[in-house]
Each structure stands twice: as structure tokens, then as C-alpha cells.
Amino acid sequence: MGTEYRTIEVGVDADGIARIALNRPDARNGYTVTMSDELENALTEADQDDRVRVVILAANGRHFCAGADLSDGTFEVDPTAADAGIWKEPAGRCSLAIFRMNKPVIAAVQGAAVGAGSTIILSADYRLAARDARFGFVFSQRGIYPEGASAWFLPRLVGMGTALDWMVSGRVFEATEAHERGLVHSLYDPGALETAAFELARQLIETTAPVSVAVTRRMLYELSGDPTPERAVRVDSRLVAGLVSNPDAFEGVSAFLEKRKPQFPGRVPDDIPSWLPWSDEQATPVG
């Protein structure tokens, strides 16, 4: 991950944790097209980097992201390309990059996280928040529309009733409400937020198999929207039948019986079963 960036900061530590941080603190990390392009590229690079096991999506400064940077009063859009299905709006470039990843992503959110600051984190596996965090799907109050595929992700996380309340009203709400409704997993004092995110990342690295995690997160997205469990049972059956020759399964059981930490040999993406029904779809969502 040697790419140089203008609006984000990227680093990988010795444990295999990639920290990708929004880095426009003087602008409250206002979201721009350049930032969306750089986030999409950095997330893709992290997913392809053999050193990386877990990604933390964070921000430098007091605020995670105060939404789209509209300081010049304009939007950078391409209506013709959008009509043709070619142009993708900026927040969706980030949320879909996370959705398509084989590695878990932990979002660490502090201060303002409104508009794009709320939508780009919805596809993360974990959302940790500082107690001072404030969220808001404020589009209706700006005369614009939800982005980042938030209309798909948000109801799956918090239910349709809460999603309607937050999106129709466009109101800003506190971290406690976000936690109570299931948008965030846990709350921390601002100074302890990233420490908690790194501790969670290390726990995942020490206790889980990379291939199992990659397959599991895709199963949840691809199968949970099916109208019946039939396809899920078919996928489950073939995966379980393959465990007899799966080195990760052997190591996981051996480590449990021997009361030691596992050292899973499987690697992502090389050891992900190629027959999975969504393998050729590049993570096309169900529903």
C-alpha cells in the first residue's frame, strides 16, 4: 500500500491492521470526490494486500465526517454517465468498496458523522462510536436524496421504522440513540475509541480464520435476502462437506483441543471456494 494520498492517510502496522483515515481535519473531513476515489482505492489495496487482516476506517481530527464539502455550492456530478449506469456517486464508491471486501472493516466514529459520514460506514462489519458522536441522514433537510446505498443498508441494520424516522426527518441524533437502535455496536470515551478499535482488530486476527471470515460475511449479505432458506442450505451443505479436507478446519479443532491460539493456513482470496454462487458476481447484493 504505497500509494500517496491527498485527503486520506493510510498505514499498516505489524499486526496486519490497516488504518485508513479521512485526513481533512481543518474542513471537519468534508467529503469530496477526490476523497471518495482515494478511499475506494485504499480499501481495494488493503483487501489485496497479504499483510492486511483487518481494516480500521477512522478519521484524523475531532470529527469523522461532516458530510459532503459544499463550500463552493456545487456538486461534482456526471448526469449523462449516471443515466447510462456508468457514473457512481461518491459515497457509494466507498460503501460498495467495503461491501465487496473479503476482510473485516471496523469503523471508528467520533464527532460529526452526518450525510456521507453516516452512509459510508453502513457496510462496515463493526461500527464503534465515541460518546460525542452525532449522526444524521440529513438529505431531506437539504432537498437532496440518500446516497451510499444507505436505503439498502440502513433498514437491514436498524429496521424499517427507525430508517424511515431518521431519513424522512433528516434529524441529527446522538450516539446513545445510535447505539440503542443498533446503528453502532458500542460506545467509548473519545480518547479510548481507536484503542478499542485496535483491540477488536487484534482479537479478530488472533481468533478467526481469514477465509472463514471472508465467506461468512458474504454469506450473510448474499443469502439473508433470499425469500426462502433453500439456497442457504445448499451452500451450507457444500461448505460443510468440504471441511473433511479443509486445513483451516483441522487447525481450528486442533487448537481448541490443545487449548492454544490457532494458526490458520488459509489465505484470502486464494483459498476462498471458487464454486460459491456469487463468486463471478463481484459481490452483487441480493434483494
UniProtKB/TrEMBL annotation:
Amino-acid biosynthesis among the record's keywords?
no
Q: What EC number(s) has UniProt assigned to this enzyme? A: 4.2.1.17
Q: Which InterPro entries match?
A: ClpP/crotonase-like_dom_sf, Enoyl-CoA_hyd/isom_CS, Enoyl-CoA_hydra/iso, Enoyl-CoA_hydra_C
Does this UniProt record's set of keywords contain Oxidoreductase? no
Describe the reaction catalysed, as an equation: a (3S)-3-hydroxyacyl-CoA = a (2E)-enoyl-CoA + H2O; a 4-saturated-(3S)-3-hydroxyacyl-CoA = a (3E)-enoyl-CoA + H2O
Coiled coil (residue ranges): none
Q: Could you tell me which Pfam families the record lists for this protein?
A: ECH_1
Name the UniProt key words of this record, in alphabetical order: Fatty acid metabolism, Lipid metabolism, Lyase
Gene3D superfamilies found in the cross-reference section? 2-enoyl-CoA Hydratase, Chain A, domain 1 (3.90.226.10), Lyase 2-enoyl-coa Hydratase, Chain A, domain 2 (1.10.12.10)
One of the protein's GO biological processes: fatty acid metabolic process
Give this protein's Gene Ontology molecular function annotations. Answer: 3-hydroxyacyl-CoA dehydratase activity
Tell me the NCBIfam families matching this sequence: PRK08260.1
Q: Which family does it belong to?
A: Belongs to the enoyl-CoA hydratase/isomerase family.
Q: What does this protein do?
A: Could possibly oxidize fatty acids using specific components.
Designated name of the protein: Enoyl-CoA hydratase
Annotated source species: Gordonia terrae
